[in-house]
Write a structure and sequence with these properties.
By secondary structure, the chain is an alpha+beta fold. It has a single domain, classed as Roll (Thiol Ester Dehydrase, Chain A). It contains two helices and eight strands. Strands 3, 4, 5, 6, 7 and 8 form a six-stranded antiparallel sheet that branches. Strands 1-2 form a two-stranded antiparallel sheet. Strand 1 and strand 2 form a beta hairpin. The longest helix has 20 residues.
Length: about 180
């Protein structure tokens, strides 16, 4: 090496469904491959205002892409427009892994699925994938919890939501926990 060049070591990809430790807290990490089954995807329009000084899509803009994908997913599953002022689920956890930069001319889709449904929470997985190459650019693991907007208390996920998610995703009974 010379002339100001530096060598960047590559870290091997983790095995599927491994765990990553950060201090004393353990977070689930899902190494998503393009072979994972997604029943829903929505195209994402990359805008100039989404770009950072390195001409890649800013990490914050990618959060917005996942929010858009999640909302569109709910509208597809529930067969109606979502009014977030009335929705009785809230986002309580988000974990993102930025695997490869998204550039202005990439043709991105946001793929979304429910992993499991609990009594008071829904676990979801999303990925931003380049339609031309199949490359997964970013993954997002999230948890939504049932929430009463009047009392500000945790509530169970509606049975009708559980049924719609289960049917849409063809989830086995053991995925409802």
């Amino acid at each position: 090496m010379g002339n100001g060049e530096c060598e960047i070591e590559s870290t091997p990809e983790p095995k599927t469904k491994s765990k990553r430790n950060i201090g004393e807290v353990t977070f689930p990490f899902f190494n998503m491959q393009t072979t994972e089954k997604y029943n829903f995807s929505v195209p994402i329009q990359v805008r100039m205002s989404d770009l950072d000084p390195f001409v890649h899509v800013n990490n914050g803009a990618q959060c917005n892409y996942f929010d858009f994908g999640r909302s569109a997913y709910f509208e597809e599953v529930f067969h109606k427009p979502i009014d977030w002022r009335e929705m009785d689920m809230v986002l309580v956890h988000v974990e993102m892994d930025f695997r490869e930069g998204i550039e202005f001319h990439d043709q991105i889709v946001c793929e979304t699925r429910v992993l499991s449904i609990g009594n008071k929470s829904v676990k979801m997985m999303q990925q931003l994938r380049d339609m031309r190459t199949g490359t997964v650019k970013t993954t997002c693991y999230s948890v939504l919890a049932g929430f009463d907007r009047i009392t500000h208390q945790s509530i169970p996920i509606r049975e009708e939501y559980k049924k719609m998610f289960t049917e849409f995703e063809s989830l086995p009974d053991d995925q409802q926990k």
